[in-house]
Amino acid sequence: MEQHASIHRGDKQYKCDVCNKHYVNKLSLQNHLKLHSGEEYKCEVCSKAFTRMSTYKRHKTIHEQGERLYKCDTCAKTYTQLCSLRRHRASHTGERPYKCDECEKGFSQMSSLQRHVLIHSGERLYKCEVCSKSFTQQSSMRRHTKSHSGERPYSCDNCGKTFTQLSSVHRHKVSLSCACLWSVFCVKTELPSS
Prior knowledge:
Elements: H1 2-9, E1 14-15, E2 22-23, H2 26-37, E3 41-42, E4 49-50, H3 53-65, E5 70-71, E6 78-79, H4 82-93, E7 98-99, E8 106-107, H5 110-121, E9 126-127, E10 134-135, H6 138-149, E11 154-155, E12 162-163, H7 166-174, H8 179-185
Antiparallel strand pairs: 1-2, 3-4, 5-6, 7-8, 9-10, 11-12
């Protein structure tokens, strides 16, 4: 009973030894520790990975239900969960209620702010198992891991050059380093004879 009452009081007596964050109960601390360990729950259908079992289970319903019951009034995009629709609506309002104390950058979701704060702290909680390079964002570490596997799933539709990231394809095209694009811009013109 006392442990339950501490939740309502906001007592945070469980401390993470890695990053010094505090939690109201042991289960919350254990879930948090998975972020540091890199432990993941991977969806068998779409290969998306999650650090929390609860988030993973909620995600699985997308594939199981298939029905998208919640529709955005602004753009008609549909969702399987109400919380996803609410999160999406913030993209239309531009509302960013979660502000970074360090740089004043605003975020529509608390989780995005929490990820962002790591940039300022310099904490690199995610480590590559192959080369031990560490990252502030789990997504950055996952992207980096592809460099070790040799996987290059993205390609330029003009010249066929392959890349590890979609953003690299866009950068390749914009920088005009694509040989096929040069042929579009560099059209030979005849000089008038005198």
